[in-house]
Amino acid sequence: MKVLTPEESMYTCVRCGACRGVCPTLNITGREADGPRGRVLLARSVLEGEIPVNQEIKEQLDRCLLCSACVDACPMDVQVPDIVMVAKEQIAAATEMNSFHERSVKIDTSQNDIKRTAKPVRNVKDFFFDKVLGDQKNLNKVGNLLWMYQKSGLQKVTRAVGIMKFFPEQMQQMERIMPEILPPSKRKHHPEFTPRANDTKETRGRVAFFQGCIMDVMFRETNDNSIKLLSKAGFDVVTPQTQVCCGALHHHSGKTDKAIELAKANIAAFENANVDYIITNAGGCGAALVEYEEFFRDNPSWLARAKKFSEKIRDISEIVVEKGELPELAGRGERVTYQPSCHLQYVMKVKDAPAKLVKKVPNAEYVDLPEKKYCCGSAGIYNMLQPELANEILDKKMEKVKETDSAVLITANPGCFLQMKLGVHREGMDSVIETKHVVDYLVESIERAEAKTPS
Amino acid sequence: MTETMARPPLDKKIISKLEEIFGEERVLTRNTDMITYSYDASFETQLNPRKPEVAVIALSTEEVSQCVKLANEHNVPIYPRGAATGQTGGAVSTKGGIVIDLSKMNRILDIDHRNMQVIIEPGVVQNDLNEALKPYGLRFPPDPGSANMCTVGGMVSNNSSGLRAVKYGVTRHYVLGMEVVLPTGDIIVTGGAKSKALKSVSGYDLAHLMIGSEGTLGIVTRLRLKLLPLPVTRGIILCSFKQLEDAGAAVNAVFSSGLQPSAIEIMDFNCTKAVNMMKPELNLPVDNEAILVFEVDGAKEEVTSQVARLKKVVETYASYIKFSDEPEECEKLWQARKLVGAAVGLLKPGGFRVYGGEDICVPISRLPETLREIHNIADRYGIVCGIYGHVGDGNLHTGPVVNSNNEVEMENVQKMIDDIHDLAIKMEGTTTAEHGVGIVRAKYMDVEHGPAMDIMRAIKRTLDPNNILNPGKMALPN
């Protein structure tokens, strides 16, 4: 667990500036207010009631990607994203209620627009977070709708009719790069238990697979491949059916109650699985899961359970590098680069495991992506909420990707995957650069090797 | 917020003119922006932030020149700012006006490796520069602790240095020439306008007048820097001493044995404790008054022999020695020193480390008594502090740790800072060795310089008759 609460943590910032070099938004605009140091001070000013809550401060704090690169760079581990979140929660509450909390958050009535825009946005968010993400059945229904949309010819029709033109540019582009949804028949529950592929060898461990919510609908194949990869690397894999969404998006949007509810459900689901490790294939989810303890600071019985749960969380690349044994791999002469997931590298502190695995593929060349320290701009749904800044971040990222002259761009998180795919699409390079989750890349390499040497 | 507006508020027309120069997007006037430009890394600006009236983000010499010209014509103060990692308030406003942010002028323009020099813009971050130079086997040696985030322009303006100054000197030793926007807006190049020479004694050395002038005489917009080859390898010797005096004697013995370490760092008992708290696995010896960490560098065989010789010299004085010339082990030993700046913050739960009285420099011979005296001062005010520093040149960094909500402590730590500065002068030292004067040490300028201050003020008046460039700093005319 983190030693300090966000409020305590913000007072340990000495403004040394160690965070300046890793902040993606500061890198774009150069404005101090777009850097971590500025954000901590602005959040603090809001929480202390030094400045009133108004549209200006809201807009400013909304520009933070919450990528955590600054926390990783900070010698004092100042929890910038948590601090920004606390301030955002207070702003949200103050806008809806006028008066708020024991603290003296002041509403600035000279800027009325903050109140007018708050409600409808919040209603849509409520529906999305509570009714869709929080409920796997509903999420599956959305998945079915998407599949129908893609398969029924409706996608072709809408594209031909040009109806997407009426949506914001960001949505139009997202619609185009959406992964193909598998039909409902192929999205049944994962098997509760998948044994290691080679049972003549000793097991590398009993692990549970965390499937995620969006991940399991939109990236079902990557999830299938994850279980396959774990099994092929020597693990016995349990996939508990009672697991739910990790709650990261709820938490990041200030819906802490729902996030806690989901956390409890997951802790209970995985306790029953009786495993050594719990494996995620999405840096964003993994980062949320390792921080479950934070929800239960004042709840000793749950805190102990959360602690046990969090200690078992491993990223799939990390566990395969540390405990697994990969079968033979084969490349096809491609050059490969890797854009890390921020939550994976900065919160889970898994810095180079995906790259290490990619480097193991023979007949493929791994090149480091310059400035891979910077977030790609996906950051949950940031690219929807801050399209302009997100696009600038993305354009800069794509410049660097092009410099590597790679044919495969590896990611380790669904948000990053979509963002990178969007970037490739915007550059008109869909036929030149393939965006892939590291798991899919490895399974393909394994299967390529298997095809060459039939057993 | 400290509102030090001794002047009428900025005319709206000036904002529009700035927008003409920079474009609307790079002219910032919103309250949220002003708050974030009200501080640097100094304790002083944490206590008393100082908002400017407008901040501009410059991208070219031409923009800087036009902006300064405008400010000079209308008598508006203008404050150059890099990454604002300074600890003196040097990069913040003292009476409203314009902060000019130079951190986006960060292009490396020409790595002229055959001539062992590089031309850059001032906003380049020290570490980024060295990363770019690595493929050429070259480096820009000055190494302040903030190398990860400080701009080279800021380093030049403060004549910064770091722990390897004992062998490689300070920023001043690596500046060959620069382009400067003068307080009138005129642009000059010093160190020979077209020269690429590595040495020159032609004329007054104006570049060196600018170095360390903290943005009071001109705004640096381009730099020509001398480079050195990268050292091939290094060795580390970490040793601990029962008595401070033993550590002092060991340093003397090393120097007189003909060895030239690239760094000699000292950490007192509190620093040792703090590092052990942060990284228990380092398991530093605690039963002592000080730890010294020596670094030697050079070719592999040279380093091996230096490590052996150095070990032999310090053995007489030290109670514990660990050493290595293997990169991985060196990295481990060096961690103790690397972490100390942040670790001292742990000396008090929930406390934060105050940067104040943090940069004094005393004669090496007086280090032990200075260290003891600093702890006496701290005890007197009931404040916990760790002391570390570059013992090879007598530069001590004191890190008091306080809780910001404890008013008595906050008051006492400020008294303690004053006492440390007074002590430095009493010990025939200086109040600042590498961080600068800015706002926080201006009051010691007359004591340290005597009548020489008149000359400094005369130079300032000559170059900046309207006193628009970074006024209120270094005890220059106000």
Q: What class, by secondary structure content of chain B?
A: alpha+beta
Distance between the termini of chain A: 48 Å
Low-confidence stretches of chain B: none
Which CATH top level class of the domain at 108-229 in chain B fits?
Alpha Beta
Q: Give the second-level CATH assignment, the architecture of the domain at 108-229 in chain B.
A: 2-Layer Sandwich
Widest sheet, order of strands of chain A: 1-3-2-4-5
> Looking at the chains present, what oligomeric state does this protein adopt?
heterodimer
DSSP helix count of chain A?
23
Helix content of chain A: 40-55%
Taken from the alpha-carbon principal axes, the silhouette of chain B is globular
CATH fold name of the largest domain in chain A, please?
A: Glutathione S-transferase Yfyf (Class Pi), Chain A, domain 2
Number of helices of chain B: 16
- Helix/strand class of chain A: alpha/beta
Tell me the domain tally of chain A: 4
Using only CA atoms, what is the Rg of chain B?
23 Å
- Biggest interface pair, residues each? A-B, 31 and 39 residues
Question: In CATH terms, what is the fold-level topology of the domain at 108-229 in chain B?
Answer: Uridine Diphospho-n-acetylenolpyruvylglucosamine Reductase, domain 3
Describe it for me?
The complex is a heterodimer of chains A (455) and B (478). With 455 residues, chain A is α/β, with parallel strands linked by helices. Chain A folds into 4 domains: 106 residues, Alpha-helical ferredoxin (Fumarate Reductase Iron-sulfur Protein, Chain B, domain 2), CATH 1.10.1060; 61 residues, no CATH class; 133 residues, Glutathione S-transferase Yfyf (Class Pi), Chain A, domain 2; 126 residues, Rossmann fold. Helices cover 52% and strands 7% of the residues of chain A. In chain A, the strands form 2 sheets. In chain A, strands 1-3-2-4-5 form a 5-stranded mixed β-sheet. In chain A, helix 17 packs across helix 19. Chain B is of the alpha+beta class and 478 residues long. Among the domains of chain B are: 92 residues, Uridine Diphospho-n-acetylenolpyruvylglucosamine Reductase, domain 2; 122 residues, Uridine Diphospho-n-acetylenolpyruvylglucosamine Reductase, domain 3, CATH 3.30.465; 112 residues, 2-Layer Sandwich (Alpha-Beta Plaits). In chain B, strand 18 and strand 19 form a beta hairpin. In chain B, helix 1 runs antiparallel to helix 4 and helix 9 packs antiparallel against helix 13. Chain B is globular. At the A-B interface, helix 3 and helix 4 of A face helix 2, helix 12 and strand 16 of B.
